[in-house]
């Protein structure tokens, strides 16, 4: 069976890949994540997926242009959770279904179904809608059962492990939940900057 696996990030893809490949599926990855901001983070995560693809020997289709505008327009005035995430999931799952249909795959799924930080309850109906809309089966597997194994694998492979979900709003929720930077984070940034200055000037 030929499966298109939408990849949200490299660490989340380890366990799903192990599982799908062990079942003998032919897997091709899809990098389509207009929700990852800013550009430096987008590139870091995409490069980590390139590393992952060579570790597992899989092909990946890349939407490698950084164009967050479409994403920001889609969530405008709906920036609160869970509506924002629903829109964000839908964009990516629909793209996965569309690409899978066009590429004559047998089914599609996403590494989003591995993450304990994402809402499976919200995503399953969206994936089913995408499946119906594009006429391509959704491979519904709850990859969360391999949560610990996936973390170990991502460390073993030396993959970049991000600190926030992806969008600027999630970055704000991580570091400035009330609009003010968390004090421990500020101190960390100052110390890092001091280290950089020390390295630079000796
Ligand atoms: S928190 Fe994550 S899932 Fe939710 S909108 Fe942001 S990037 Fe998308």
Low-confidence stretches: none
* Main sheet record: 4 strands, parallel
The share of residues in extended strands comes to 5-15%
Oligomer state equals single chain
Q: Cα distance, first to last residue?
A: 57 Å
Q: By helix and strand content, what is the structural category? A: alpha/beta
What is the percent of helical residues? 40-55%
Element-by-element helix/strand order: EHEHEHHEHHHH
State the fourth-level CATH superfamily of the largest domain.
Answer: HUPs
Mean pLDDT metric: 94
Total helices: the number is 8
> Could you say which overall geometry the principal axes of the C-alpha atoms support?
globular
Question: For the CA atoms, what is the radius of gyration?
Answer: 18 Å
Number of strand elements? 4
Q: What ligand molecules are bound, each kind once?
A: iron/sulfur cluster
Number of domains: 2
CATH architecture of the largest domain: 3-Layer(aba) Sandwich
